């Protein structure tokens, strides 16, 4: 029997969706790619893609989820009467399983650094040889796998408690804390010497640095960081009542995501600039550059701890949405089966994640196709499955879904009528074309 869950409030739904969106994409990948690709020029392109591509896709996930009121591997066929369409849901269901398997590796690193920094705070020791420490921690199988297991375990604990008591409650606590932590770190960053050099480096547009690759990345990022293409937002919207305005809620999620992207830059660049460090340091930014930066400051380790916690909140609110997609499909929304499904799926995710966790250590020399096992999983999900999912979502909504269904879900006020027409136009013509263009340029590269 289906015992369909519901969000307790509209705010809970928005915070959970924003929590899913805001994650490693916006806070970890974005700042260093942006620093490398023309600063604000890149931000402008990203915002454009987010509004014209990510946002319409987010609304299409919302429409399908709320109208079908069911899990993602059933919702498509349920709306059109053709079960073949459920393949879109299956693609996403497999995609998130793979994504969580390596997302949790980074989540594990964050947890390990939280524990380390807590210790350093208590013992008053300074961390030295930042690069060496990072390298030896993530290459140690005990830490890499232990951190990953712990991260998956925490995700599982929240998801096992269900929609209102688990996901909604966690989001309502963590998302406001995330903002508070951000404000603290940004004030600290902006009051450093030379902070403005960092701000202008971050905000001054340099269009000459924009390459074809940066445009591709900005596009991929517009799906990834809004969590669209795999049915995560569909799943969350299936727990939503009929009263909530989808366009407004979607816009809130999009704006929060853009805001956080900018805040992340404001937290990081002034701090690195004040010490004259190049910010474009790749993934090591959080674990190598920032601990160094903060160690130079009074109370620096405390600020670094807050920074890490901020990353932890952002990451886990995304990973719970990833696991929830699998759980809703595995249980067919029968809450009595939730705990068992959470346990089995978490074990599965961990097992698949083992080679990814070991990719920075034991398996670092085992390379094929795109690089290490981790790199391959990332490539498969971010460059192939997610754009494919996004493409299918746009085709489904633009061509296969009854226009009346979408209309009834989105247009509740007269001013939304013209927006609806633009939305359909983007989904039918622009989004599929842009995605095909990106695919081709990746393959022909
Ligand atoms: N949006 C998340 C991030 O930026 C990742 C994600 C993708 C989550 C797809 C759910 C579904 O980290």
Automatic annotation (TrEMBL):
One of its GO terms (molecular function) is symporter activity. This is Transporter. The keyword Transmembrane helix applies. It is a multi-pass membrane protein. It comes from Macrococcus lamae. Its main location: membrane. It holds the Pfam family SNF. One of its GO terms (cellular component) is membrane. It is found in: Membrane. The chain crosses the membrane at residues 12-28, 40-64, 96-122, 142-163, 175-195, 215-239, 251-277, 302-327, 339-359, 379-401, 422-444. Keywords: Membrane, Symport, Transmembrane, Transmembrane helix, Transport. PROSITE patterns: NA_NEUROTRAN_SYMP_1, NA_NEUROTRAN_SYMP_3. The keyword Membrane applies.
């Amino acid at each position: 029997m289906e015992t369909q869950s519901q969000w307790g409030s509209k705010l809970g739904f928005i915070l959970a969706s924003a929590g899913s969106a805001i994650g490693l994409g916006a806070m970890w990948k974005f700042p260093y790619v942006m620093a490398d690709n023309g600063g604000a020029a890149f931000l402008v392109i990203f915002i454009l893609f987010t509004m014209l591509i990510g946002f319409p896709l987010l609304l299409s996930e919302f429409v399908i989820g709320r109208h079908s009121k069911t899990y993602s591997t059933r919702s498509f066929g349920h709306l059109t009467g053709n079960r073949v369409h459920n393949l879109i849901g299956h693609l996403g269901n497999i995609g998130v399983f793979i994504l969580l398997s390596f997302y949790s590796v980074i989540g594990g690193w964050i947890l390990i650094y939280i524990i380390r920094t807590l210790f350093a705070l208590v013992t008053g020791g300074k961390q030295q040889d930042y690069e060496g420490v990072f390298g030896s921690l993530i290459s140690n199988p005990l830490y890499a796998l232990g951190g990953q297991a712990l991260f998956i375990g925490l995700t599982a604990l929240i998801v096992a408690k269900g929609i209102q008591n688990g996901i909604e409650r966690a989001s309502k606590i963590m998302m406001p804390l995330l903002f508070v932590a951000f404000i603290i770190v940004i004030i600290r960053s902006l009051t450093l010497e030379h902070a403005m050099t960092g701000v202008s480096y971050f905000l001054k547009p340099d269009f000459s640095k924009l390459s074809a690759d940066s445009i591709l990345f900005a596009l991929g990022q517009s799906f990834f960081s809004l969590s669209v293409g795999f049915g995560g937002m569909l799943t969350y919207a299936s727990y939503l009542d009929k009263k909530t305005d989808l366009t407004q809620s979607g816009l809130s999620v999009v704006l929060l995501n853009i805001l956080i992207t900018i805040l992340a830059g404001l937290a990081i660049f002034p701090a690195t600039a004040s010490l004259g460090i190049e910010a474009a340091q790749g993934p090591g930014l959080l674990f190598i550059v920032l601990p160094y930066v903060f160690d130079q400051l009074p109370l620096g380790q405390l600020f670094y701890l807050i920074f890490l916690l901020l990353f932890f909140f952002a990451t886990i609110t995304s990973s719970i949405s990833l696991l929830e997609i699998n759980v809703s499909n595995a249980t067919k929304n029968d809450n009595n089966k939730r705990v068992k499904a959470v346990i089995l799926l978490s074990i599965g995710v961990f097992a698949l994640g083992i080679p990814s966790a070991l990719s920075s250590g034991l398996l670092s020399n085992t390379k094929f196709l795109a690089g290490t096992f981790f790199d391959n999983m990332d490539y498969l999900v971010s460059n192939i499955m997610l754009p494919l999912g996004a493409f299918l979502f746009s085709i489904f909504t633009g061509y296969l879904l009854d226009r009346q269904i979408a209309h009834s879900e989105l247009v509740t006020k007269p001013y939304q009528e013209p927006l609806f027409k633009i939305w359909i136009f983007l989904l039918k013509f622009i989004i599929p074309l842009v995605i095909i263009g990106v695919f081709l340029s990746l393959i022909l590269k």
